[in-house]
Amino acid sequence: MRMPATLIAAASAFALAAPALAKTIPVSAGEGAQARLQEALILAEPGDTVELGAGRFVLTDGLSLDVKGVTVRGAGMDTSVLDFTSQKGAGEGLLVTSDEVTLRDFAVENTKGDGIKSKGADNVVYYRVRVTWTGGPKESNGAYGIYPVSSTGVLIDGCKVSGASDAGIYVGQSKAITVRYNYVEQSVAGIEIENSRDALVTGNLVTRNTGGILVFDLPNLPVMGGGNTVIDGNLVVGNDTPNFAPKGNIVAGVPRGTGVMVMANDGVWVKGNRIAGNPTAQVLVVSFPKPFTDKTYNPLPRNVIIGENQFSGGGDDPQLPGGEQLKAAFGGRLPDVIWDGVGKQGPVLNYPGAYLSLGIPGPDVGMAEVRPQLVKPVPPSALKTPAGYGAPDALDARARP
Amino acid sequence: MRLLAAALLVLGTALAAAPAPVQVNDRAVSNGTYPQSLAEFGFFSDAAGTVPAPGVIPYRLNTPLWSDGAVKSRFLYLPPGTQAKANGDGLLDLPVGAALIKSFAFGGKLVETRVLLHREGGWLALPYVWNAEQTEARLALAGKRIDLTTPAGQAISYAVPNKNQCKDCHNLANVTTPIGPKAYNLSAEWLTGLAKAGKLDRVPAVARRIPRWEARGKAAAADAARGYLDANCAHCHNPQGAASNSGLYLGWQVTDPIALGVMKRPVAAGRGAGVHEFDVVPGQPDHSILAYRFASTEGGIAMPELGRESRDPAGEAVIRAWIAGMR
After folding, report:
1. Which residues partner with A199 through β-bridges?
2. Is A138 in the B-facing interface, judged by CB distances under 8 Å?
3. Which of A225, A163, A175 is closest to A200 using CA atoms?
């Protein structure tokens, strides 16, 4: 049979284009899942989808992905489960070190260390992924559930994390971040944005954690100067789980019952949230409280704007030194917004209502020296509101096409 | 017929007695595929992978990475007509076509051989696992768990790394790179020999050399510990490594005490921090996260994260002595 020239040309073009055509690599649960899944993750090519079947993948070691542009897709966060209960080694369940990766519709359970970590992995999407430590909050649980770090372009959307002994969702040393529509519970920190810039945290439900949403900046790290971050339209409700973080962790210092906590950072806008029933503090704004030697680090929060939020309850069981007396002095519950009082009121914090300053004279002082007082709002000053935050729009198409 | 049989027997004996010398297969080193069997590279003259082929040069590191007490043999292959270039006192600059080969043995039996191949597109790391008969090592892209007993008599589930895990350690700014053959961790004698053989452009000047592990008792406690930290930790704990975000940098040449962990708080250590607040508390190994994580074998706590299933008492001792002697 002779092939017409045009068809041959078309066929050749197809052949040339073929390597760029995405293929799907199905991986089923069952015998040998560790090796089969890891091999698929190694042999995948850019554009490919590694498709996890339904069922429970029993895994003994961490998995890793180092190919750009790969999608790992399961049959649903309750259907395709990567079960690390018998994990022997590695620091996390799944490690991603390549750019443009999409992780969606599967679950990771009971990892020894972190759940899913992506490091130096730009434009990563986590969509409808679940990370759970099934035994509830325990110190022996892994630290972070979803853990992108050192990356530009991060979208975490529609995920669910429970039981992390540090932060359920932790974004560290990164830029251009959106964390939205997630449900984080029973972790020490619900959502933590650390040493990062240009983050939007919106539409999340964070409840039953020790602290709900934390925005921290820490010294002695390769990336510092966090800020330009917006916490908008979240439900931060009833975060009352006792702190179960190992003592050495920075989040071990988060008082049980904190709704939103800002430490250091330049430019954090907290608005449009429903913040309810967080027994220590609905919103806590503090400087970095420990001694440090890093001369390039600014321990003070700056340009923190607490805009219109719906507050209710909370502050009625404060886990702060002198909390009981403070509570009594304020008629049974603390004001919604609490500031440690380090630094100057105006440049640090803007809030339209009266708020409590703990009156700490400087960093690293004993609580005995504090002089708590109610401070009146300063007139809206020239605080800069964040702009140009959130993940690149292109990531949306990979989450919700 | 009998004559023919005898002739065949003689021929067979002759072949067994003097096998044709194995040539390294430069194509297998350089082309774009993943050879399924280690033998395809021709790095060894014998099937048992013990006799290096011509051009495959054994070497050792002054202080090596500890891997559950495995006895390691290391080899460098340089294609004919090429040479390595000295690069200060750091990593030798190896030409395209070069390979680094490392075999791991327990109880006199080879368990795995890892190869690093310098291809046009960069370095590629591949793990090969030996069969029980010790006649062939086959590619294990996805790694493997092997039950074995360490020299210390401990039964462990030994982890052969998968291809990605190879890169986790062999990773500098997201580019796969060798770790071991840094001039400051190689002996002057070996480097001189390599240069004399025309396989190294010059003998690099090394101001401070990591002490030989066997002679660590004669070295300063800090040098012994820092050499061990360099070989066991610094491939991740450096500003361009897998642990760059930790801010804890443990390379031989690091001088900043905070970067070395002295009174440095952990960042994302999770429960790896235990009850401790600082990586290194001078004079107090029992309160130092570094010593704590070295003494653990539990996932999520143990460091290094990969390649260690049991404790290394000698390594722990040098780290503890260094911290204990620190003011």
Report:
1. A177
2. no
3. A175
Q: Which stretch of DSSP H or E encloses residue A16?
A: helix A5-17
Interface test with A, best of B34, B164, B280, B290 (most A CBs within 10 A): B164
Confidence class for position A157, pLDDT limits 50, 70, 90: very high
CB contact at 8 A, B253 and B297: no
For the record, the structure tokens of B3 come out as 């004559």
- Residue A259 CA to residue A191 CA, distance in Å, equals 11
Does residue B131 carry a pLDDT above 60?
A: yes
Question: In the predicted model, what is the mean pLDDT of residues A108-131?
Answer: 97
- Cβ–Cβ of B275/A248 closer than 8 Å? yes
Q: Coil, strand, or helix at residue A133?
A: coil
Among the partner residues A90, A166, A246, nearest to B299 by beta-carbon distance: A90
Tokens of A160: 């669910």
The DSSP output letter for A179 is: E
Tens-place pLDDT, residues A320-330: 888 888 899 99
Rounded Cα–Cα distance for residues A330 and A352 (Å):
19
**Measured distance CA(B105)–CA(B111) in Å, rounded:** 5
The answer to whether A153 and A121 are in contact (CB under 8 A) is no
Amino acid at A386: P
Whole-model pTM?
Answer: 0.89
Could you tell me whether strands B171-172 and B175-176 are parallel, antiparallel, or unpaired per DSSP bridges? antiparallel
> What average pLDDT does the structure give for chain A?
90
Q: What residues does each domain of chain B span?
A: 22-209, 213-327
Q: Is A12 helix (H, G, I), strand (E, B) or coil?
A: helix
Q: Which residue of B has its CA nearest to A171?
A: B268
Rounded Cα–Cα distance for residues B99 and B42 (Å): 12
Answer whether A294 sits within 8 Å of B258, measured CB to CB. yes
Residue B188 to residues A93, B204, B227: CA-CA distances in angstroms?
A: 42, 9, 16
Chain A hits for B276, CB-CB cut-off 8 Å, are 247-248
3-state SS string for chain B: CHHHHHHHHHHHHHHHHCCCCCCCCHHHHHCCCCCCEHHHHCCECCCCCCCECCCEEEECCCCCCCCCCCEEEEEEECCCCCCEECECECECECCCCCEEEEEEEECCEEEEEEEEEEECCEEEEEEEEECCCCCCEEECCCCEEEEEECCCCCEEEEEECCHHHHHHHCEECCEECCCCCEHHHCCHHHHHHHHHCCCECCCCCCCCCCCCHHHHHHCCHHHHHHHHHHHHCCCCCCCCCCCHHHCCCCCCCCCCCCCCCECCCCCCCHHHHCCCCECECCCCHHHEHHHHHHCCCCCCCCCCCCCCCCCCHHHHHHHHHHHHCCC
In this structure, are residues A315 and A337 in contact, taking their beta carbons and an 8 Å threshold? no
d(CA B196, CA B189): 10
Q: Which residue has the tokens 């911290």?
A: B323
Q: Give the C-alpha distances (Å, rounded to integers) separating A229 from A4, A50, A75, A271, B61.
A: 60, 34, 33, 11, 48
Whether ipTM exceeds 0.90 = no
DSSP A253-315: GSPTTEEEEEES-EEEEEES-EEE--SSEEEEEE---S----TT---S-EEEEE-S-EEES--
Q: What is the DSSP letter of A380?
A: P
Kindly give the pairing relationship between strand A175-180 and strand B71-77.
unpaired
Rounded Cα gap, residues A203 and A392, in angstroms: 18
Residue A140 CA to residue A349 CA, distance in Å, equals 37
Instruction: Give the nearest partner residue to B300 out of A113, A150, A293, using CB atoms.
Output: A113
Which of B141, B258, B302 has the CB atom closest to A42's CB atom?
B141
Nearest Cβ partner for A39 among B142, B245, B264: B142
